[in-house]
Design brief:
- Three copies of one chain form a homotrimer.
- By secondary structure, the first copy, chain A, is mainly alpha-helical.
- The first copy, chain A, has one domain: Ammonium transporter AmtB like domains (Ammonium transporter fold), CATH 1.10.3430.
- In chain A, 70% of the residues lie in helices and 2% in strands.
- Chain A is built from 14 helices and four strands.
- A two-stranded parallel ribbon of chain A has the order 1-2.
- In chain A, helix 8 runs antiparallel to helix 9.
- Chain A starts with 6 loop residues before the first helix and ends in an 8-residue tail after the last strand.
- The N terminus of chain A is likely disordered.
- Chains in contact: A-B, A-C, B-C.
- Chains A and C meet through helix 2, helix 8, helix 9, strand 3 and helix 12 of A and helix 1, helix 2, helix 3, helix 8 and strand 4 of C.
- Strand 4 of chain A pairs parallel with strand 3 of chain B, so a sheet runs across the interface.
């Protein structure tokens, strides 16, 4: 039986992709310029290319394989992740060009890395709706979210003159709340009784572990790649230590909070990353290793508890079905990092007035980010509900078969 | 029942490997020299070691896991890939030494990378006969093809004074046509009705996706590692953009050309790489990002259509069974890159005479490469047909059991 | 039925982890200092960060996935590996700080890499008891072994003034003998008839292959990262060549020694690394490529034969059940590297007295290392036998279910 919505990919996905791609090529043809000077601001290329590749590996392999755990949705998870990533990166290059360079799209390693960071916020969000959207919807999400995130960066710069790093690292909070709103609006009746296919098996769990490992290993590059040379190594060590502490703490809290006193695989895959998120958000004010480690400790506690209780609570009480629990993985640690940033900065201020001024600015920047992400999430969610995109039927959720042809699949599973 | 050809590995593979390896050691003992000076031509080591490792990861992990998709042939695919890679690299180091350094085998990062590029052409070719050859045959292929490829580089240099990069990047065309010829000569009757074991399952498909991701991510390093410093970053960005465009385009064309309007996994694994191939072949004349993106677009279209129609057509009409469809993955995009090179170079010529001269040279270099690859492929194919190597029986094709002992394999699946 | 030892994780693992982690944070708060100067000894950061990430990938991905081959123990293998790695690294940072910097924990890339090398010796040892210990025991092992290994480094420095590289590269010998002793003391009756669950399947075998590939690829970084700039590239090439030779030789010997003349997957996963081990131990005296290649050849022969015969012999004759055969993978090649070091150094000595003096020193350093590793292994083994840690029951060995909760595991395997 041919599924009813089968044509949707042909008549919607293919034209959308082709139009977008041709549009991007035309825009690049008129506005893009290669910054081929090896030394940008006296920094030789070798300093940043390996880190660019680390960030690249996180975006493509890390996020791509982290989401393969669903037993029947692994191909879609990894391939759509790639598709979303390349579209979001191209759009982010263009929009960042408009923001910084007066309409010129400058291509250098820094601009590529910055574009991939905007992409990361999209990859976080789509974790919340993993398995419940079709690729057309995913591409719309990526277009709207990249625009929203860059708008947010721009607003923060205009209104509050925030540091570049702080504005970019808002990606965790932005992505998490965007995804949260999205999945709340796209709620499907019956999600309380878990979907039949929303399961993992031992092998897909291992693929997911592989993705986690890539994220975990390369997070120090992610947090330090855009930091100035003097503080770059500090950011790297801080992130490394915070991640190490997170791994230990997540295991401990997972066991403590388990009714049977056992470890939970999802916690060992998501919560061990919490330290990287939190330190990333507060990286510009961390000066001591123990600060990073304490933040990593707290982030892992918050994240694991969020995974254990918040996810289920949100589903039952708020009808918000967050497949990858991005709110607990990126949202709560991100907020904690924000708080740590506030406290550490105030501690460093000699002056009362400056401290208060900073606090007001910092709180405003959070409020702006959350407001923008929630409102962009709402707009996107409402747009995606339109029947035009042929949303996946409930019984076809979490299933590769809706999108892939398998001519030569072995019969044995 | 002990399979009849079981002894072949012991009496053929083991002596061949040992003899080859001892021979290589002796040659290295007399002729190899470490170029331990950190700065070769004023270029510090740090500039190229990370990229060397990226190329290494492509050869070992990328190609190795890309070929694991066959459900019963994953161990052989990844392990034989490694075996072929290390033998081909050692031979390429020796032959490149003869070519460039008057019989001295110089060991530095550039010579290692160059040897791995020669190896890449072998790894491409063996994709065409994947599952249908035994390891002895694979090693013979690697010896003959490396020799052929280096002969080709040498002929191009002597006759046409081609650029090093252009001569090396002919590897895609050389490898594809070599593999094509090989699999045509080694055709097995009955291939039209797909072999029973020539299938993938969901987990091996994911391993294959992993290999693809490594190739996709690190391709910018592959295309730029040997480029001079001034143009290195440009080659990197071009490749990155071309790959991004390829991914989007391959998805679109795959859906458009599918009878059911669905995506095809093989296309999302092979055709997203087409942009990297095409830009690699034409990298020395690409100056604008949009040129790279357009080439990536065209390459993905050609490659996906090739996968959809050409592979089956070649099997039924020409009796050529190309397991990994290397002709569509590397051959057609390579030719397209060659064409783009020609057009872009002519566009840049101010002078009519120079343009014609270049065109003649460029066409000659293609003809030489194709002729040499087809004739070396023919020679190799005929040699492999000799019964001495005990070719794998038809019913043991695509099966690990012919080559591996499994004493403690779990009974379940 | 709730397993009887289920509570052990909650009441033992969680408090242990939390106490350790909080303790580490407090120690770091008082003694750690970031060495944020980019140039340590005139060496720019870019020279070593990519290699640090390679070593990191080996520790986390390489060792983690190498051990996933057991069909029901993959989650534990990869996750416990991470847990042990981060705890061992933090402890090693602290103890190295006490050793070198008079109580100051200096954080820079070199100290991180050195800490990860100490960690590597633990990751080797736990391969010997893979599947037969609970996480509490693994953490005790990591604490005791890191202390033992750093004690060994310190003793070698005080007594024999050994080179830093030689002292660190003793990690293979130290780890292998420590693990050997450990598994001998923790012997479980009935191990002669292989445990029911001590098996691999085709997919876990591939994950294991993935881990191997990461180790194999990045081994040149592992052996060269701490070497001084002038000799760094030489160490890299030597390791690369030795690994290439090992891969070829291991395949040949595996086929030769197989009753059916077939390849063995375990050999292709462990023995291809033997060259890296042996060259690592002798790296400071290797000046010619052929020396490295010959060492790689001999190491692969020894390691493969060890795998084929020694493992079974040790189990039946000595009642020592070494799950990953670390004695053959790291122990024998390590000893061979030690011997090669001795012979090459003596060959280079002009003077008889100096040669004898070196030989005495070199033999003493081996004896010290083995004595310390065996005695620390004995102490650790005896400590682990205490019932307090609730050792895993025999029938729950090699089984994830003892440690993990699986709420949403798909029923289909």
């Amino acid at each position: 039986m041919a599924p009813r919505y089968a044509p949707s990919l042909r008549y919607r996905l293919a034209p959308l992709l082709l139009l977008l791609q041709l549009g991007f090529i035309i825009i690049f043809a008129f506005f893009a310029e290669i910054q081929s000077k090896a030394d940008v601001d006296g920094e030789p290329v070798s300093n940043i290319y390996p880190e660019f590749q680390d960030v690249n590996a996180m975006a493509i392999l890390g996020f791509g394989f982290l989401c393969t755990f669903l037993v029947r949705y692994s191909f879609s998870a990894s391939a759509f992740n790639l598709l979303v990533a390349v579209i979001a990166t191209q759009l982010a290059l263009i929009l960042n060009g408009i923001e910084y360079h007066r309409g010129k799209i400058m291509l250098d390693l820094r601009s590529l890395v910055e574009a991939e960071m905007c992409t990361a916020s999209v990859l976080i969000s789509i974790g919340a709706v993993l398995g419940k959207t079709n690729p057309v919807q995913l591409i719309l999400i990526s277009l709207l979210e990249v625009s929203g995130f860059i708008l947010n960066k721009w607003v923060l710069q205009i209104l509050l003159k925030g540091h570049l790093m702080d504005r970019i690292m808002a990606l965790h909070i932005f992505g998490a709340f965007f995804g949260f709103m999205l999945t709340w609006i796209l709620y499907r009746k019956g999600s309380e009784q878990r979907f039949e296919k929303e399961k993992f098996d031992k092998k897909t769990g291992l693929f997911s572990m592989l993705g986690t490992m890539f994220l975990w290993m390369f997070w120090p590059s992610f947090n330090s790649v855009l930091v100035d040379d003097g503080r770059k190594l500090g950011a790297m060590y801080s992130t490394y230590l915070a991640l190490a502490v997170s791994a230990v703490t997540a295991a401990a809290v997972s066991v403590l909070s388990s009714p049977k006193g056992k470890l939970n695989l999802i916690h060992m895959q998501s919560c061990i990353l919490a330290g990287g998120v939190a330190v990333g958000v507060s990286t510009s004010v961390i000066h001591q290793p123990w600060e990073a480690m304490t933040i990593g400790f707290a982030a892992a506690v918050v994240s694991t508890i969020g995974h254990r209780y918040l996810k289920m609570h949100m589903l039952l009480a708020f009808q918000c079905h967050d497949t990858c629990a991005v709110l607990s993985t990126h949202g709560l640690p991100g907020l904690l990092g924000w708080l740590a940033h506030l406290l550490l900065q105030i501690k460093d201020c000699d002056d009362h007035t400056m401290a208060i001024q900073f606090a007001v600015f910092h709180i405003c920047s959070l409020l702006i980010t959350i407001t923008l992400s929630l409102s962009m999430g709402t707009i996107t969610g409402l747009l995606l509900k339109v029947n035009l995109w042929r949303p996946t039927q409930d019984k076809k959720c979490f299933d590769d078969q809706a999108f892939w042809e398998f001519p030569h699949l072995a019969a044995l599973k």
